[in-house]
Amino acid sequence: MTADRKFRRNPKAPLLPQKRDDNEAGLTERRSPAPCSTSPRQFRNLLQVCVVVNNLGMLVVYMIIIGDVLSGTWSDGVHHSGVMEEWFGQRWWTARFSLLLVTTLLVLAPLICLKRVDSLRYTSALSVGLAVVFVAIIAGVAIVKLIEGGLGFPRLMPKLVDQASFWKLFTTIPILVTAYICHHNIHPIENELIDPTQMKSIVRTSLTFCSSVYVATSFFGFLLFGDETLDDVLANFDGDLGIPYSSFLDDIVRVSYGLHLMLVFPIVFFSLRLNLDGLLFPYAIPIAFDNRRFYSVTAALMGFIFLGANFVPSIWDAFQFTGATAAISVGFIFPAAITLRDIHGIATKKDKLVSWVMILLAVSSSTVAISSDIYGFFCSSKAAARS
């Protein structure tokens, strides 16, 4: 089935003509607090806040990585050059602010101004292809160097030198959780499908593909760079890989993933805008029908994301904040809470037990991650003061 047949093609149809309650509010009714509403208004608002915080954090991370790819980044006092810096040298127009501004105006702005998800189907397909190119090159380089004997055996266990390094292990939890938070995109996509029953297979295929990309990237990336692997592995691709055409492959890897993020950006932004609009204007007409509100919300969100990408120190800081709070809530706490509420009376004892376990794990892991961040911050502050 082609992409044109999968989506409703009526160009005059509203954003969610028949099921706006699912799309605009994320998961629940937004017109009026009807007696049959599946969740109270406070629960809905809290869920929307978490989706907004999670998506804002994710998009800030995307723009930070795009900036790292184009203009370079600093890590432990070492500057890792970006693609534009290597090609044209250090100029005012190859600085992070300038490149992100141009990217925002020429690439991201036109895409985020589209009012339907199906308008992004071709860019989304292209982003999948770019992700495959990125993983294939990393895997190929790692395999070639492994065959040639140019790789050492990577360290399999974390290096624990003190209490701070132990607690730092738990800061990876927010990143793992954030990687699989896509719940908020399901309803906007489902409501534009001709056959909504396809959604289950779409979700399964997407999760399988994403998991494969995550595992392959982490495995071959760590195999290739070992202990030198940076928080943003793309920053590692700024030097000699020890194989022919190393510089060319470096550029292909960084450019392909940078373009991939630019094309994924509007999908995440779509649900961000809908949930923020549902939170601020719960009784207004659909945002697709109000151009002033649509473009005002879009401009405000894009401005916030742009500033965040220029002033947040690194992707690690953004991941830690959103992953340990909003992402865990959206991924674990809210789904478990809906199951425990069980307004239709269909949940079994096993379902409720699993839900309680999910909430317990979510709260405990979030608490440990946040505590680890605070502890690590104070330890680094003390070390800096001593030096």
From TrEMBL:
Residues 1-11 have a biased composition (Basic residues). It is a multi-pass membrane protein. It comes from Rubus argutus. Pfam families: Aa_trans. Residues 44-366 form the Amino acid transporter transmembrane domain. This is Amino acid transporter transmembrane domain-containing protein. The keyword Transmembrane applies. Keywords: Amino-acid transport, Membrane, Transmembrane, Transmembrane helix, Transport. GO terms for molecular function: L-amino acid transmembrane transporter activity. One of its GO terms (cellular component) is organelle membrane. It comes from the Eukaryota.
